[in-house]
Amino acid sequence: MSTIDIPDEYDDIDGIEVIDIRSGDRSTPFEHRVEPVSKTTKAIKFLEDHPDVQISPAAVRRIAYGAVEPGLLEGARLERHRVETGWLSVLTYRAYTLMLSPAIENDRLLDEAHYAADPDTSNHQRVLSMPTAHDTDATLVYADAMDDLLAAIDRASKSVRKNNPQEVGRRIVERSLTAVPATFRNPGRHPDDDLSLVDGNSRWAACTADIKVPASSIRPTNAKDPDSLLPSHLMRLPLAERRNLVREIVKNAYRDINAATGTSKAARAKRDQAARLLNAMTVPVQVIVGYTDDNPTMGMGRFPVAVRSLLMRMNIGVKEFKEPSKNGVTAEEIVTALFDAGELGDDNAQAVRDVLLGRADVTDAMKSLGLNPAFRDLRFTYVVQQLTRKEPRLNAVMAAKLDKRRLQVTHRSGPIVELGLRSYSSFPKEKLAPVRTALDTGCLWQALADHEWTVENIDNDQAVDDLLERADNGDVPARLLLGVLAMVTLVTGGYLLAPGGSAEQIVGNIKVMRAGVGTVIKTVLDTKEGRQVLADAIKRIRAGLPPRWWADGHLVEQDGWKGSDFNAHLRLAANHGFAPEGYQNEPTATELEDKALTAFQLSLTRAADDLDYLTALRKKNGTTTELSWTAVEPSFKQLTFMNKHFALISEDEPRG
User: Fold this and answer.
1) What's the rounded Cα separation, in Å, for the pair 454 and 477?
2) Where are the beta strands (DSSP E) in 261-314?
3) Contact 239, 65 (CB under 8 A)
4) Around 479, how many Cα atoms within 13 Å sit in the side-chain half-sphere?
């Protein structure tokens, strides 16, 4: 049978040539030829004896068997690539495409994956567990069942074929793919190792898109398996059989070329398709074969982090990481580094790590932390609490991973959002997108990092009422917990949104607060009415009911209100307050001072917005002349005066 798929409509007058990929003597006509196994012996011995090659003999054989010119591996020079935690040793050569497998986990899609932390995630949609380090080898270890791994790899391969097609075949692939040895703890009936790509999945998928499954070499597991070659077909094969498959496909392609004689459209199409296939049968590849940690005591413990760190920083080509996916990778690096440094506690560190990452079932881990695993908002709140803690060592680790000289509360937002949203990953994209947008406007406020607070098991209405009572009595940790829970519940429920253009129209053309959702919650939280609205919203939204609003001195259901209506009124209240009937007692001196501080800080926010508007206007108008000193002197003096007097009533900025 033919190994290629010929489209009905095809015409290429010029014809496609099979490209000579030899690196040596080119005096003889070129023809692809898979070298016999005997040609790999010297390369295998060289790699096994090389001091910088830290992989298993099985992985060495995979490299040698997959090389187009295995003789060039003998004496090859390894390159060293710097990553944050140490050095990776990399071997570069040209490999047969089918001797590599696509990424087992596609980090570019972390923001789109479904996570076990979400109670509604089904098994077939669930993201895989993170790979762990091998004890001695530069190898990624996967613990998932092989059927789950293969299903995930096939889904990813189909996805990139559709969403990121590449032009492959008229020319050979010239931009290197990056691979790493992988081993599987639960291989079942499959081989227990592979060379897995960590970059270049779209190129691999394009190379294999038109290859059919040769029935003589690969028998699908059932009659419904597709004709198109998938990673799972290859990964079922022992190494020698996989190499024989490459030889068979190459041989069949040349048979198609030799058989399609003449100048007819069909003959030319068959020759061109066979030439395309042969040009796509090889790719340049960099295989990571060793790792040296800056801290020798870590051994290979940080190898998975090093690989992912390299991947995220090298993606500047065809398909860059989207910001949410970058934040997801960075968040996992932060959590892993905190776990390795012992910053996630002594007794329940593994449970804390599992809850934060959200990849594995968190039921037992949440219970061990005293939290109800059925409540998504509790896990999200726990993520916020753990990654806003004040510990200097924790902050140092986070600052390093975020590449910040000084860690500010806003810097923590991206990783927190991506980890927190893993509890909601089964939401439809059209529902999850505005949630992420709202949180990305800024979901944190400074008090979360300034005060110690913990997450309690607030999983029923009475617990919410008790929390509200403590918050009303001036308990700062209780107030922070109430605020975060309410923010998560309102945002994911669609009642606290990014500041929209119609908000003022909804509330009668009165200026609303256009700050991030965290600032809105922080401001509302400082009023007694606001705390009652937030606590009631937690209870109502959890029960599937719309939140009530404060009117006439009590909470009232608002018929016909949509999420945008509640959002506009909450932002209005943040700017102008609630009706005064909500106070049961006269405000205390402390509350008056807090209110005055809030008003002052809001005025600064509005002033900053006005300055941004002025700057944007100048940029839009192309204004480059500087403002005259006469015009700006009063403003500069006012800012200096305010800075001096505000410093008199403020603590000194803490070091570190």
Assistant:
1) 7
2) 282-293
3) yes
4) 20
Q: Is beta strand 549-551 parallel, antiparallel or unpaired with respect to 554-556?
A: antiparallel
Nearest 5°: phi and psi at 231?
-55, -35
Q: How far apart are the first and last CA of the chain?
A: 68
Which residue, among 448, 459, 436, 457, has the nearest Cα to 484 in the 3D structure? 448
| 601 close to 526: Cβ distance less than 8 angstroms | no
With contact defined as beta carbons under 8 Å apart, do 55 and 179 qualify?
no
As a three-state string, the secondary structure of 473-485 is CCCHHHHHHHHHH
Decide if 197 contacts 207 (C-beta within 8 A): no
C-alpha triplet 175, 176, 177: angle, nearest 5°:
125
Quote the CA–CA distance of 398 and 400 in Å, as a whole number. Answer: 5
Phi/psi of residue 451, nearest 5 degrees: -120, 150
Residue 499's pLDDT band, with cuts at 50, 70 and 90, is: confident
Enter the DSSP assignment of 50. Answer: -
How many whole angstroms separate alpha carbon 81 and alpha carbon 531?
A: 53
Amino acid making up residue 43: A
Q: DSSP letter for 71, please.
A: G
Contact 130/143 with Cβ under 8 angstroms?
no
Residue type at 475 in one-letter notation: D
Rounded CA gap, 579 and 564, in Å?
A: 21
Whole-angstrom CA distances from 23 to 17, 27, 93, 406 are: 18, 12, 11, 50
Q: Is 202 helix (H, G, I), strand (E, B) or coil?
A: helix
The token duo for 539 is 């209870």
Structure tokens given for 36: 């016999």
Q: What gap in Å lies between CA 356 and CA 224, rounded to an integer?
A: 39
pLDDT tens, position by position, 37-84: 999 999 999 999 999 999 999 999 999 999 999 999 999 999 999 988
* pLDDT, tens only, 252-306: 889 888 887 878 888 888 888 888 999 999 999 999 999 999 999 989 988 988 8
Helix axis angle for 517-525 and 528-542, nearest 10°, is: 120
Calculate ∠ Cα 392-417-353, nearest 5°.
55
**Cα–Cα nearest to 379, from 425, 440, 346:** 425
d(CA 181, CA 200): 15
Contact call for residues 343 and 391 (beta carbons, < 8 A): yes
Distance CA 434, CA 440 (A): 10
User: What is each CA distance from 444 to 348, 408, 412, 457, 521, in whole angstroms?
Assistant: 26, 10, 8, 21, 9
User: Hey, how many other C-beta atoms are within 10 angstroms of the C-beta on 213?
Assistant: 20
Q: Which of 359, 98, 284 is nearest to 209 (CA)?
A: 98
